[in-house]
Specification:
With about 425 residues, this protein is α+β, with helices and mostly antiparallel strands. It has 13 helices and 11 strands. β7 and β8 form a beta hairpin. α8 (about 245-265) packs antiparallel against α10. The protein is globular.
Length: about 425
């Protein structure tokens, strides 16, 4: 996959100025949800009640979004089931115009989000100008940019263009740019901005946002976890385009592409701290997609979270993101000790390419070479140059296995190494 040409600040400002077009395109891995209550029951009754309250906000002029009319007036959004409802986060499966989507919010109620604050509304209808919107949203936008929502190359180009007064300069509001925004639009947009959704539509490896209403946003429906595990490993035959072996190798290559993308394509690395099958899905083109990644953090946030008191290394782990204890200072080191690739090798590739699962094929030369590379990848100390070498070896072996299985067309999986 080509490096993403992301201009986070200008993109977000453009979204603010185009909000009346109704299509919100913000999203991505969220930080840890803030809890409304210690524990909630994931019941259909609770999910339907949440949507009723959302429609109440819409009817009262407090919420807006391109899904609202379909959900609350047209009857075109059908509630199906609760997927997750705990520690503040609400996730539901719905059908929108017959299409399955996942409806999500970090907090249950629109009123639970930090309010926009007093704006100098300019008429009795309670509307605000684009300038008011930009000024109020700027701190949140710049915070997002700081945590990595821009590719390094694009950031450097933008800086050069800014110095020359070129295309990288911030947009200037002219009288013709002015558009009236309602309180509902501003409140809804502000609640969505607070959910740290920074990667959506900037990465093929993150579920796409397809719509929103108030503080809830809808992402594409993708089967995750054991569902795609069964699909991948249940097919008859090991060779050829449709065989299990070919598909597993394609998916593994997409995992490698995702690792490289999260390491290199943003201003800061993205750290995946909870690697397990249910946190990933596979699209029909066999692209790996990180879904529901509540514990994915850009480098500055990762360092901040690791920086705490410790009495030993055991005090310094955060799920799959490990650090070590500086016994002299009695504080965890701010730099992560393992890598995304290392954890994926340990928890996913180690199973997929184990001799037990491969059976009779486990002794073939390329399979033995792959097992050795996965073992090396799983061990400590694969960061930096060593990590790149292991990454390259895995890519080369998997590519050769694809060719050996009769597959020479790699167009289905974005491969840019």
């Amino acid at each position: 996959m080509s490096r993403v040409g992301v201009r986070c600040c200008r993109l977000t400002l453009a979204l603010l100025l185009a909000w009346s077009a109704s299509r919100l395109l913000l999203g991505g891995p969220a930080l840890l949800p803030r809890a409304d209550s210690p524990s909630d029951a994931c019941t259909d009754a609770a999910g339907e009640e949440i949507l009723r309250r959302l429609c109440g906000d819409f009817a009262a002029g407090l919420a807006a979004g391109d899904m609202c009319a379909d959900l609350c007036v047209g009857g075109l959004v059908e509630y199906k089931r609760c997927l997750y409802y705990q520690s503040g986060k609400k996730v539901m499966e719905v059908r929108w115009r017959g299409r399955p989507v996942v409806l999500k919010s970090e907090l249950e109620n629109l009123s639970s989000y930090r309010p926009l604050g007093p704006l100098d509304y300019q008429d009795a209808a309670g509307d605000a100008s684009p300038l008011d919107v930009v000024l109020r949203a700027a701190p949140e936008i710049f915070c997002k940019c700081r945590y990595g929502g821009q590719a390094e190359g694009d950031r450097d180009r933008d800086r050069d263009q800014d110095e020359e007064g070129g295309a990288g300069s911030p947009p200037k509001l002219r009288p013709s740019d002015r558009k009236i925004y309602t309180r509902a639009e501003l409140t809804s947009l502000w609640s969505l901005l607070q959910q740290d959704e920074v990667l959506q539509d900037l990465s093929a490896h993150v579920a796409k946002v397809v719509g929103s209403c108030g503080h809830f946003y809808a992402v594409e429906w993708l089967s995750a976890g054991h569902a795609w595990d069964r699909d991948v490993f249940s097919a008859d035959g090991d060779e050829g385009e449709g065989g299990r072996g070919s598909r597993v190798h394609r998916i593994a290559l997409s995992f490698l592409d995702m690792v490289r993308h999260f390491d290199d394509d943003f201003a800061h690395k993205v750290h995946l701290c909870d690697v397990k099958p249910e946190n990933f899905a596979i699209r029909t083109d066999l692209t790996v997609v990180a879904i529901d990644v509540d514990m994915a953090f850009f480098q500055p946030k990762m360092e901040e979270m690791l920086d705490r008191e410790c009495g030993g290394d055991d005090d310094c782990g955060f799920f799959d993101c490990a650090s070590s204890c500086d016994l002299g200072a009695r504080r965890c080191r701010r730099r992560r000790a393992n890598t995304n690739l290392q954890v994926i090798c340990q928890k996913i590739f180690g199973l997929w390419f184990s001799p037990t699962l491969l059976g009779a094929k486990a002794g073939l030369p390329l399979q033995v070479e792959l097992q050795r590379a996965v073992r090396e990848c799983s061990e400590s100390g694969v960061g930096g140059g060593a990590g790149r070498d292991v990454h390259r070896r895995l890519f080369d072996i998997l590519t050769r296995l694809l060719h050996e299985g009769g597959k020479s067309d790699e167009g289905r999986v974005p491969l840019n190494f």
